[in-house]
Each structure stands twice: as structure tokens, then as C-alpha cells.
Specification:
There is one protein chain. The chain has 310 residues and is an alpha/beta fold. Helices cover 41% and strands 15% of the residues. It is built from 13 helices and eight strands. An eight-stranded mixed beta sheet has the order 1-2-4-3-5-6-7-8, sandwiched between helices.
Length: 310
């Protein structure tokens, strides 16, 4: 299947609200099935491919600092997941874990790429693991930051609540309207325990003003089921490295340690700072950790530093 490079119903949103989006020059829209994907493509086209998958409620801006560092040595592909950011056309089944993993596999196939490294954050790690298990992607290795491989704190309450909110067509518009009045983005970012730059805060604020994004995030929370994935982690044959911040208040480091016991040969690295958005708070450190983890599996020499770190 070849991606369709043509105007779509997503393009006006990207051109308008996303005119100053981080790495906008690397953006394009790719139609695969019913989904119009917002994709960012950086680095040399013939370099080994790294894909970047964000977590719930985020978008490609989450990798604004990390992607250019990785692109010094790789072709980097980041995308807004179904229902998020500037990606449009997702239906309810695309917001489940199996549905999102299948959609990601379809995008990778349409782009004609074979990822050497698959890098995810939070719920994005679960998407990568699910897609690998189902054969949608076949990376040489998977690297996860603060992997959300158990329900995020409060999910016993949030999942039923998300279902109710997702079922109400007015919810997304009401939330986005409220986000225009109060500083909702800063309130939510405070809960991550991360200090990110002004550009990142503005991007989250913009996303919270988009009803389509709110609806996608609520739909993802309402339909998320991790138990089937966790039960199959022992079947993974792809090398996995989980990186966790000791000061993450949303997904404690113990979650990565517990998941690593279920994944054959899984490596874990705990860093002492950064919070839940550590890859945004310290992209240089994140790039170095990725280089270190990927070197053994992708042919990248340990002496060759991603991001120019010494």
C-alpha cells in the first residue's frame, strides 16, 4: 500500500493551527485507509530509521528537542497517533490498543520503511509492543521512556469517567472552551513532574483547545485495556530497553521494573530526574540513552554519539 500524498480534510487544521508547530518544515499528511496521518520526517532518507511514538494526549511536538538530535545519524519518523494532534479520521476502534497498533503498522507499511529502532513514551510504548507482537512492525529493538504498562494512577476512576465523557458529543467542545479560559495546560503539566520549555507548554495549550484532540485522548483512555498485552509480553523476541525517571509521579519507575521481569532479556535504566516527560525536559540525555541502548542492536557504533554528546 502506498501513502497518498494529496490534500485531505486534515490539511487545513495543520496549515492554520499548526502553522508554527515545532519542526513544521518536516511535516506532511499521509492518507492510509480512513486515517489522515500527520507525519514528521527528518534526517537522511537512506539512514537507519527510528520511529517515535508519543503517549496519551500528546503529539509530535513531544519530540521537538529529541528528533533533531537523533536525525544527525538516522532518518526519524514521528507521527500524531489516531485521534491526536493533527491526525484525523480515526474511529472508536482505532483508539483501542489493538486498533492503534494495527493503524501504526499500516502507516509504517504505507511509508515503505523498516524501523531499526522504535522509541515510545508512556502509552506509546504499549502501542509499539502490541504492534511488534502482532507483526505490524518489526524493529531491531524497542526503547521505552516511562512506559505506561499498568493503568496510570486513578485509572480505576478515569476509565469509566472517560467512557461517559467520550459518549457525550459536547464534552470535547466544553473542555476545549474551558482550556481557552483557564490555564489548563500548566495544571496538567504540573502533574507530570517535568519542567519543559515555553514552546512545549504552548503546544499542549493549543492541543487542549482542539475538540478533536480532546475527543481522541478521552477515547483512548476509555478504550485502553493493557491486560491482554501484559499477558503476552513473555512472547516478545525483540530486544527491549525501558528507561524510567525515578521522580515520575504519573508512572512510577517500579512499573518498568515489573514489566522488565515479564519481557525476555529486557534491560532497565533508571535516571534520577526528568519526571514523566523526561525526554522533553532533557532531550540530550534522552538521545544519549537511546544511543547507548540501540548500539548493540542496530549497528551504530558506541563511539558514534547521537546528538554530538561527549
Amino acid at each position: 500500500m502506498k501513502p497518498a500524498h494529496r490534500p485531505s480534510r486534515s490539511l487545513p487544521a495543520l496549515e492554520a493551527e499548526g502553522s508554527h508547530w515545532p519542526l513544521r518544515e518536516a511535516s506532511r499528511m499521509v492518507r492510509v485507509g480512513r486515517i489522515d496521518w500527520h507525519v514528521q520526517d527528518l534526517g537522511a532518507q537512506d539512514a537507519p530509521v527510528a520511529i517515535l511514538v508519543h503517549g496519551t494526549g500528546a503529539a509530535t511536538h513531544s519530540f521537538r528537542g529529541l528528533a533533531p538530535l537523533l536525525a544527525q545519524d538516522r532518518r526519524v519518523i514521528a507521527m500524531d497517533l489516531p485521534g491526536h494532534g493533527f491526525t484525523r479520521g480515526a474511529e472508536a476502534e482505532d483508539l483501542t490498543l489493538p486498533g492503534m497498533a494495527q493503524a501504526l503498522g499500516g502507516l509504517v507499511q504505507a511509508l515503505g520503511i523498516n524501523p531499526a529502532v522504535a522509541i515510545g513514551h508512556s502509552a506509546g510504548v504499549a502501542v509499539l509492543l502490541q504492534s511488534t507482537l502482532s507483526g505490524g512492525i518489526r524493529p531491531d529493538c524497542i526503547i521505552g521512556f516511562n512506559a505506561a504498562l499498568e493503568p496510570i494512577r486513578g485509572n480505576v476512576l478515569l476509565s469509566p469517567l472517560a467512557k461517559l465523557l467520550f459518549a457525550n458529543p459536547l464534552t470535547a467542545r466544553l473542555v476545549s472552551f474551558q482550556a481557552r479560559i483557564v490555564n489548563m495546560a500548566d495544571q496538567l503539566l504540573k502533574a507530570t513532574g517535568s519542567r519543559i520549555d515555553q514552546t512545549g507548554r504552548e503546544c499542549y495549550a493549543l492541543l487542549l483547545r482542539q475538540p478533536t484532540h480532546i475527543n481522541g485522548a478521552l477515547g483512548m483512555m476509555a478504550n485502553w485495556r493493557l491486560e491482554p498485552l501484559i499477558a503476552k509480553l513473555g512472547q516478545l523476541h525483540t530486544p527491549v530497553t525501558l528507561i524510567a525517571a525515578a521522580d515520575d509521579p504519573m508512572v512510577p519507575a517500579r512499573v518498568s521494573l515489573q514489566a522488565a521481569r515479564l519481557i525476555p532479556g529486557c534491560a532497565v535504566e533508571i535516571v534520577d530526574h526528568g519526571g514523566h516527560l523526561m525526554h522533553e525536559a532533557d532531550p540530550a540525555l534522552a538521545a544519549e540513552l537511546i544511543r547507548r541502548a540501540a548500539a548493540a542492536y542496530t549497528g551504530l557504533s558506541p563511539a558514534k554519539r547521537i546528538g554530538g554528546l561527549r
